[in-house]
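Pipeline run #58 for the internal structure catalog. This entry was flagged by the ingest filter as a single-chain record with no existing model, so it goes straight to prediction. Upstream metadata was stripped on purpose; only the residue string is passed forward. Reviewer on rotation: M.T. Logging verbosity set to normal.
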Amino acid sequence: MSGTTTKSVDHRSCHHEPVAAVTSDYTPPPSPFQRPPAPSSPYSVASDTVSDWDYHWRTTMGRTRCCVVMNKLESSATGRKTQYHRLLPLFRRRCHHKNPLLSPCAAYRVIEFTDSTGLVDIWHSLSDEELMEKAMMVPRIAEDPKKVAFMFLARRHLPLRLFWEKFFEGHDGLFSIYLHTSPDFNYEPPNSSVFYKRRIPSKFVQWGKPTMTDAERRLLANALLDFSNQRFVLLSESCIPLFNFTTIYNYLMNANGSFLSSFDDPRKIGRGRYNKRMGPTITLKDWRKGSQWFEVNRGLAHEIISDKTYYHVFQTHCLPPCYMDEHYLPTLVNKIRPDLTTNTTVTWTDWSGGGSHPRMFMKKDITKTFINEVRYGSNCTYNGVNSKICFVFARKFHPSTLDPLLKMAPKIFGFSP
């Protein structure tokens, strides 16, 4: 990239926060997947004795968490040597690895770029294999304040970008954005936009081919490199939010499980797509179908990008009329962690017309009645309680819907005018 410099930095550098003492006035909603802090937490500078830290390692810390702390110490040791220098040898011993390039500690040095204005970019030069290896070694528990990662799988630009800008306005620090576009698409929005420099290294995607799932895994792996991301939602360029940011943030953060649909479809477009050559690794009993548009928590996201066994079976044997984006994740989750998903999706789509693609909504369709019907016209359970809010995103919306959506945004969606 011209005009850029690369650096290997601690993950908190882009948040402009002190590395040793992390404080925030914001208290996020409780997450059922967050473990309670251990005694003498290494994230508190109060625990600065070797015995305290050694106790924490033996009782609550694994190798991965140890290396997060060691990187924090290395970043802080120069300026506060008297406080930290005696702790580094302990953690270097605990986190030692024969190959430093593959060590968990090296995984926390996220490659970033800065442009001529000093803005942080998420572009990098890692191959897919290197990216997956790095993502597999990140913490499974997000740091505070926890964020939602919005992962856009798009062909080129986002025609509804201005509507999304309204959605994100005023909520800095609670979301991350990742864009996977065609690799020959180089457009950047203004640097005042939340979408500026949010493209990840991408590859060409073909509908119905394994490259679609490759792109989804690429988005997840990049998003996992931000230790604050707790929820991960996959969206297309034709998706819109159905509620304001606060409502959606709380809905996702407070959910007991992930929203990834996985069901047994006995029809030809379900079980009929199963290839016997997938056995015995994947049997017909394991086979599932579901919506491509998922939302997962950090634990399940980590499980997804860590899979190699089932992924390669699908790459080899799930080809049209078998569509990997409809079967891989539902089957994978059914095999490894069915307890982590609600078997539902939070993205509303109209399939009533039949065919291979859902209905596309045009400018004339955007009315207050229609939007409210999508928002409240379903019945479901949320954390075991009956709810009228079953979907928080919807698709597919034509670019012509931007103007009417912006006009009704203040009253219907609660966005600022």
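catalog note: Residues 122-346 form a domain with the Spore Coat Polysaccharide Biosynthesis Protein SpsA; Chain A fold (CATH 3.90.550).
catalog note: The two ends are 37 Å apart (CA to CA).
status: ready for reviewer M.T.
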